[in-house]
């Protein structure tokens, strides 16, 4: 043992100063390492004065990293010292071995560091399963407590900061994530997305020169008030995304132009004779029964039977026989529930017929469209009208026209990246609709500004877009750009963007899923800032 003691000491305590290895005992359950502290003088944690006067000693049993599949316990003898400062409130204190123990700690620092790394990577339940596989099983709550006890990392003042929102509870509670765009590391998390909170955070860091953000008004106001010296940059991806939404609304407004105009027929079609429309539904059991009764009653009356005799033979009341006898045809009995009563859907039926002829056969989509136009009722009436009336109507012969979303995708894609079939369809659509042709020119011009960083051309583009007729959504998009013109021009002129921030927003979503039910703000903030 004495010959191997230096090698064991180098193996177990190479990074720890002031510890002497006494012995190593191996048993079936684990390994016990006996050691003692050898420091001659230590500093008082209360006043900081050094002392070498020993009051007593005792044993500590911190658990260490496992070895060869067995758990390791360090039997460490530490001393209790007497403080040499008479005015110090600590009369005695226990020594701590730097790098090995801490106050009230039941694990060595290297084991604690390993558990913290597992907790930051996997959080509670998954982390607990991993520690069990490593041979140092702990509960998920222990891992979360270790994470919560970590201090915040030291952060240098950033020069370029990115700002974006993240959902703590989607649709209800939102926070703010701030990222150093140059190092692509998160700096801080704020509990809300209010302008005052962001302004106060930025005001504490006067060295910030550039703020990358989206065009949310609370971020714009907070950046203006908290960092007036900084240049605000609107993210290009958000600008392109907003343009895509406006373009899709414009295409949907002109969806009638997506279907090619039919060729004029050589001969005028012959007018079909109007068919006699019967209000009685064919095959309906009540309709067929009424027709049979009407025919039987009129046959008996023609045979010479009186009305009372017919009533006795058929088992009907006299008033029923009189009502059927006065009706020349069964359609004359069309009363009450058989009448075509006016419904709230009647005003929208021409639109539904037109959309059906245009190729839209989805009842839910039709209901959503007329609901935007003011239809007050639910989906069931539209579904019944489509299934009972429109399903029997023929649709136009020919290929189905492209959807508004497909045309928008063609407009937003570089012409060289489109396949030949899409190019042909896009050319046909633009040739059939002058407004969409103008929209395509505006989209391509804006795309050149985004890719080539030509922000100085934005005012001219806005003026041209606002002058376009028949494109109200594009007009509104251009009008909104004017409210944040400086930030948009900077975003289209400088290479900075919020791409790193968007990546950390997605990472926060993953961390929240790992800590579902326990992802409070403080715990989430620790994992975001400390995880590698």
TrEMBL record:
Keyword presence, Kinase: no
Annotated Transposase IS204/IS1001/IS1096/IS1165 zinc-finger domain residues: 42-85
Transposase IS204/IS1001/IS1096/IS1165 DDE domain sequence ranges: 161-256, 407-528
Disordered: annotated span: 261-283
Keywords: Plasmid
Superkingdom classification of source: Bacteria
Protein's recorded name: ISL3 family transposase
Organism lineage: Bacteria, Bacillati, Actinomycetota, Actinomycetes, Kitasatosporales
